[in-house]
Design a protein that fits this description.
3-stranded antiparallel beta sheet; 6-stranded parallel beta sheet; 243 residues; single chain; globular; binds zinc ion; binds adenosine-5-diphosphoribose; 9 strands; alpha/beta
Length: 243
């Protein structure tokens, strides 16, 4: 049997034995749905920007404030996609039916919930939730996608802002504390598809007090925590073999 097959058998055993599982994921969980991640060699931040600033700058609060129209042009094209859940999302929704599983995601695409997962903590918010900055009215992502230019509230003409955490904005404290609590209680932490580049999300791995850490990435990845199992590969392809 080749190495990956042994690793899949090992991962199945680790999941079977676990009582409280936390899955901590990033943009790499959605690349098999066709959504670019950020820092891979062909990720969004390494693409030549069509605008006056690099895409990483455009995802900041100050860019949103000073160039709102261009921000929304970029946001509609790159952030609101018609992507569907992939095998990684589907397996986690299946696993949640038989295991105490909490998903902590840095992604804003809502694909875990679309796959059927219920217990999902969205550290950086979601494209599915958009609120008028004046009256607080709720709008879905289609309203934003279909709006011309800057999306305006049809009740009070206020600007509608996506409920996503831009650079320079604080992470939702409640989401972070819920994530921290889940990790502190877990006996298995699966970290997949994230470069762990962004604070405070990346600090969460230090609140895990167990020794069962599984790391999955399609690149080589070193983190300064003791890893029980590292599987190099695409998380969707790996999870498809876990049933
Ligand atoms: N399977 C496993 N790993 C993958 C896959 C895949 N199919 N596709 C990509 N990866 C890996 C990449 O090798 C990379 O290490 O996933 C990681 C994605 O890292 P980033 O692009 O940095 O994404 P992420 O860690 O989620 O970024 C965190 O940065 O820009 C902010 O708010 C944004 O939430 C995002 C945060
Ligand atoms: Zn309004």
């Amino acid at each position: 049997m080749d190495d990956i097959e042994n690793q899949i058998i090992e991962l199945k055993k680790i999941i079977k034995k676990a009582k409280k599982i936390v899955f901590f994921g990033g943009a790499g969980v959605s690349t098999e749905s066709g959504i670019l991640d950020f820092r891979s060699k062909d990720g969004l931040y390494n693409l030549k920007s069509k605008y006056d600033e690099p895409y990483e700058v455009m995802l900041s609060h100050s860019y949103y404030e000073e160039n709102t129209k261009t921000f929304f042009e970029f946001y509609k094209e790159f952030m609101i996609t018609s992507a569907q859940p992939n095998e990684a999302h589907k397996y986690l929704a299946y696993l949640e039916k038989s295991k105490d599983l909490t998903i902590i995601t840095q992604n804003i695409d809502g694909l875990h919930q679309e796959a059927g997962s219920k217990n999902v903590i969205e550290l950086h918010g979601s494209i599915k939730r958009n609120y008028c900055t004046k009256c607080g009215a709720f709008y879905d992502e289609n309203y934003i996608k279909n709006s011309k230019g800057i999306p305006l509230c049809n009740k009070c003409k206020g600007i509608i802002k996506p409920d996503v955490t831009l650079y320079e904005e604080p992470v939702n404290e409640y989401a972070f504390l819920k994530a921290r609590f889940a990790i502190e209680q877990a006996d298995l932490l699966i970290i997949a598809g994230t470069s762990l580049n962004v604070y405070p999300a990346n600090s969460l791995i230090y609140y895990f007090y167990g020794d069962n850490i599984v790391l999955i990435n399609n690149d080589d990845q070193i983190i300064n925590r003791k890893i029980k199992l590292f599987i190099k590969g695409k998380v969707g392809e790996i999870f498809k073999k876990l049933y």
